[in-house]
Structure formats: structure tokens, C-alpha cells
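Task 17 of the worksheet. Students: predict the tertiary structure of the chain below and write it out as C-alpha cells. Keep your answer in the requested format; marks are given for formatting as well as content.
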Amino acid sequence: MTALASLTWTDVADRVRRGAVLAVPVGSTEQHGPHLPTSTDSDIAVALAERLAAKVPEAVVSPAVAFGSSGEHQGFPGTLSIGQEAIELLLVELVRSATVTFPLVVLVSAHGGNAQPVARAVRRLRTEGRHVLAWGPKWDGDAHAGRTETSVMLALAPQAVRLEAARAGNTAPVHTLLPRLREAGLAAVTANGVLGDPGDATADEGRRLLQQAAAELADLVTRYLPRTEAVS
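Model answer:
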């Protein structure tokens, strides 16, 4: 895996001559129940970007964008949110800078709350002729800090998962919770910050989910590598 932070500018120039793509992990700093760290979304985004680099030699992984739009989690201590407008502008300016050097940038987003500002940023950048993709894992399962995210974190950083503190949160279908959640935040629909049940989470399931997602991401990026001018 090649990390941008470990390269000199001459290293980067050499890689760009060979058709490098910049992968930018986009995460958040927000509560993930009493059993997962506030870095969960950022950890997952970094892991997926690193797996992309392992599969696609042209990929260089940038430092993570570790703050996002997490206002719905503000009722829980530890959440640091910069809001939709700020994350959109941050990504626009970041990609504008990156595309001076890199022919293609892919935003690897692992926080659902960033979906709308990421999409808006990509649309704006593409109207400027920037070659940029946005991708996020499409995992079925619990909405937040449940079985899915807990399994992935058990695969990535088991020492950071406090299974003894893992408890089910609100297990109702997410669509039934959205009106109240949007009005009053996550704390209004779950006392412990969890949507779902992490009880059956396993590292094996997490590894499978990561492998599947990384393969999908690598396939997407590979399709654009030969002709980055085709991104639209």
C-alpha cells in the first residue's frame, strides 16, 4: 500500500507519470454506541482505500478526512461534526487541489451522513471538468453500530471493540425512525446510540464484507484507469 503521506514530491511525480489515482478516505468522528470507537467510519474508509491500493498498484492513499456531517449524533458526547456545507466545500477544494497533480481522484466514503454533500461536491467538480469518482460500501444490515459495523471493526481492529459493552439499540426498520431522527437526532430514537443489534457480530463476517467491498471498489476504479477522460 502506498500512502501519500510517506512520499516525497518527486515520488508522487514519478507515480503520476505512470497514471496514479488518488484515493481519499472520507469518514467522520461520531459516536458508535458504547462498544465502538468514534473513529469507526474513518477507520473503515481508510481500510477500504488501503485495500484498493493493494489491488490497484496505481492507487495512492491520501490522509483521511476524519470529520464530516454528523449533526444527528450530536446528542452523544464525542461527536465532532462540521456539517454538510463544510464537508462539501472541503471536498471541492481538496479535489481541485488534487487534480492539479492526479488524473483521477476517488472519494471513498464510509459515513452515510456524508452521502449528500459528497454527491453535490462530485457534481460540482465534474462540471469543472475534474475527473472524480465517489464510492461507498453498500452493505445490507444494521444501520448504525449494529452487527455490520461491529463485524467490520472486529476484522480491522478487534482491540478497539468493547464486546462486553455491546447491546442492541433500536431494532425497528430505519425508514420508520427517519422522521423523528431528522427532527430530533439519533438520541431521540436510541438511548445507547445503536440502530440494530451487534450481538451476533463476528470477525469472519467483517472480513467477508471488507473483501467484497474492496473488490467492488477496485473494479470501479480499474474501469476508469485506462481512460480517465471518460469520467462524467
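Marker's comment: Residues 228-232 have pLDDT under 50 and may be disordered. Strands lie at 21-26, 59-61, 104-109, 132-135.
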